[in-house]
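Lecture notes, unit on protein representations.

Consider one protein chain, 133 amino acids long.
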Amino acid sequence: MNVSVARVIVAVVGLFAGIAAGAPARGQTAAPCGRFRVEWNVGVLSPTADKLEGFVYNESRCLVTDVRIHVVAMNAQGRPIAETLGWVYGDIAAGARGYFVLPLPEAPATGYRVDVVSFDEVSSAPSAPSQSP
């Protein structure tokens, strides 16, 4: 077995181990943070470049920061032709939105896919107090 085949095997095994370790156990509820919705539009950044700007809506009960977005430019057949990463400016309170703007690649895209790929939780809303009889 050559070195490159061994590296591929190690990478695949590591990937599956990471997926298995990251999967929630049965009966475990989802974290209250991380429900996001993204709205965006294409605009003119400069005479020679376009921009993608929009808002990430925090639909969770948490204050979040360092929200990272992944933008994929798609061609007419729906295939990815370019991608970039960007940041949302500032913190996003629970129920609020945060603004982002990114220069677009020069690829002739017909559409874009924008996803939140990471964030840091600053705080979460306290649970509703239980009522005693």
